[in-house]
Description:
By secondary structure, the protein is mainly α. It has one domain (2-94). Helix content is 56%, strand content 9%. It has three helices and two strands. It has helices spanning 2-22, 43-50, 66-94; strands at residues 54-58, 61-64. A two-stranded antiparallel ribbon has the order 1-2. Helix 1 packs across helix 2 (43-50). The two termini are 36 Å apart. The relative contact order is 0.11.
Amino acid sequence: MGAAxxxxxxxxxxxxxxxxxxxxxxxxxxxxxxxxxxxxxGVGARRLxxxxxxxxxxxxxxxxxxxxxEALRRQRRRVLFAILLVIVIGLLFMAGQFPxxxx
Length: 103
């Protein structure tokens, strides 16, 4: 499962990089994804559209909403941190080290 998540995140990053390199970061600078060799039916682009990080500017043109992309990345980091914290506390609890002074 972890490998699948890593592949999806990599695909998203490739799409983001393509739009960033093209300067397509506003509706005025939107581009046709085919000009960037971006497959909009691929999992990376689809997820970015679902999260509103890639926005439709009309006429088949899209652009990267940088603020939304950065917010999505921050949210993912917070979730990852929370998961890791729960795992560490669980391991400490199982080892008898949590709460402090236990035993």
